[in-house]
Amino acid sequence: MESTFLLVMDLFGTFVFGISGAIVGVKHKLDIFGVLVVSLMAASAGGIIRDLLIGAIPPATVSDWRYIVAGLLPGLIIFYGFPVIKRLKSPVLVFDAIGLSLFAISGSLKALEYLINPLAAVFLGILTGIGGGITRDMLAGEIPTVLRTDIYAVAALAGSTVMVTGYVLGFPQIVVAVLGGSLCFTIRILAIKFHWKLPTARHKE
Fold it and tell me: Is 200 exposed, middle or buried, given 0-12, 13-18 or 19+ CB atoms closer than 10 A?
């Protein structure tokens, strides 16, 4: 059974990732149905994969209507309110960083609550965090951000590791979640601002 804290964090992460998906859909000039599809898939893909892997069946997106609303509502808001959102600098990247942080934490926490071992819980936190972004980018016909050189999955790894370590050591969940989420968000934003990159393959023809 999910804790209230986990549910709230999961729903908020779903909503935020839905915003990032909807913005991408609008930028690619999709119709309202297309925007809603990208919004919902970006919001729910990571959580669905996580739930299937830990045995939380059916996944929360299927069994709880609140997840569907949290995934579709951003699509409607962005579709009709995009002129306001586009005034922000790099809105997709900002909302994506927030969603990544929330899902890295909620993904690892839910795995731990289902008695998954700590190492696997870190991996599931990363997978939950990057799953929505990968799905969103693929639907938009783009190379997923996580496969490019930006620091992305590494940020999720840092946040998830803090969450799992604090949980195992018995620290308060909210405190550890805030610390882990803040670390993930900070690393991601700094990577965007200062163009931090991972090494890329170098091959001469």
Answer: exposed
Q: What's the alpha-carbon Rg for the chain, to the nearest Å?
A: 16
Helix (H) / strand (E) element for 16: namely helix 4-27
CA quadruple 50, 134, 160, 175: dihedral positive or negative? negative
Tokens of 109: 């926490």
Kindly report the number of other CB atoms within 10 A of residue 7's CB atom.
17
Q: What percent of the chain has pLDDT over 90?
A: 74
C-alpha distances in Å from residue 58, one per residue of 1, 14, 47, 53, 94? 13, 17, 11, 11, 31
The confidence score (pLDDT) of residue 145 equals: 78
Structure tokens at 45: 């893909």
Please report the DSSP string for 137-195 in residue order.
HHHTT---GGGSSBS-HHHHHHHHHHHHHHHHHT--HHHHHHHHHHHHHHHHHHHHHHT
Predicted confidence band at 1 (pLDDT cuts at 50, 70, 90)?
Answer: very low
Phi/psi for 199 (5° steps) reads: -60, 140
Q: What is the pLDDT of residues 103-121, one digit of tens each?
A: 999 999 999 999 999 999 9
Per-residue tokens: 115: 């008695």
Half-sphere exposure of residue 8, counting CA atoms within 13 Å on the CB side?
A: 5
Whether pTM > 0.70 for this model: the answer is yes
